[in-house]
């Protein structure tokens, strides 16, 4: 028990280390708003496109620090998103790229690298997923309600 307490104390006294993303593989697109395959993910660009969303997934908008006026469209397994009260989200992540169709991202860090979402912090990184996306009366994809992340 004493060892555990010492470990906890030493972790909290050390200064936080800035989060560093791995560079993308050579030949990948690194443009903000596009996935590494070079496909546009900005809501304004793809709001009228038909996007295949697998059963159990929802389209959500991610805010990029480098593109404050844009939302990036992401397909995320709804089990990893909170309910209306900010609760009951499973720990972990499961997402697909709506640009190039790459499926099976199991880590948000891996997914954020793929969609060129340049994160500056590691903790609570999924909070970059800000809005549910919905189709309006004209069939265009638009920003819906805020994703309620608690804690």
Placed side by side, the strands forming the largest sheet appear as 3-2-1-4-5
Question: How many distinct domains?
Answer: 1
**Rg measurement, Å:** 17 Å
Order of helices and strands: HHEEEHEE
Find the count of extended strands (DSSP E, 2+ residues).
Answer: 5
Q: Characterize the overall form.
A: globular
Low-confidence stretches: 1-19
Strand portion: 15-25%
The DSSP helix count reads: 3
Class derived from helix and strand content:
alpha+beta
Helicity range: 10-25%
Mean pLDDT across residues: 82
Question: Distance between the terminal alpha carbons, to the nearest Å?
Answer: 27 Å
What can be said about the biggest beta sheet?
5 strands, antiparallel
Description:
The protein is α+β, with helices and mostly antiparallel strands and 151 residues long. The protein has one domain. 15% of the residues lie in helices and 23% in strands. The protein contains 3 helices and 5 strands, in the order ααβββαββ. The chain has a 5-stranded antiparallel β-sheet with strand order 3-2-1-4-5. It starts with a helix and ends in a 5-residue tail after the last strand.
């Amino acid at each position: 028990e004493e060892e555990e307490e010492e470990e906890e104390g030493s972790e909290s006294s050390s200064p936080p280390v800035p989060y560093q993303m791995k560079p993308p593989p050579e030949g990948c697109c690194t443009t903000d708003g596009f996935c590494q395959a070079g496909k546009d993910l900005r809501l304004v660009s793809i709001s009228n496109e038909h996007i295949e969303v697998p059963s159990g997934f929802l389209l959500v908008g991610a805010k990029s620090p480098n593109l404050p006026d844009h939302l990036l469209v992401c397909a995320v397994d709804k089990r990893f998103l909170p309910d209306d009260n900010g609760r009951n989200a499973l720990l972990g992540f499961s997402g697909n790229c709506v640009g190039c169709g790459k499926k099976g991202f199991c880590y948000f860090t891996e997914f954020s690298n793929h969609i060129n979402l340049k994160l500056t912090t590691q903790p609570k990184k999924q909070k970059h997923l800000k809005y549910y996306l919905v189709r309006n009366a004209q069939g265009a994809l638009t920003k819906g309600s805020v994703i309620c992340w608690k804690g």
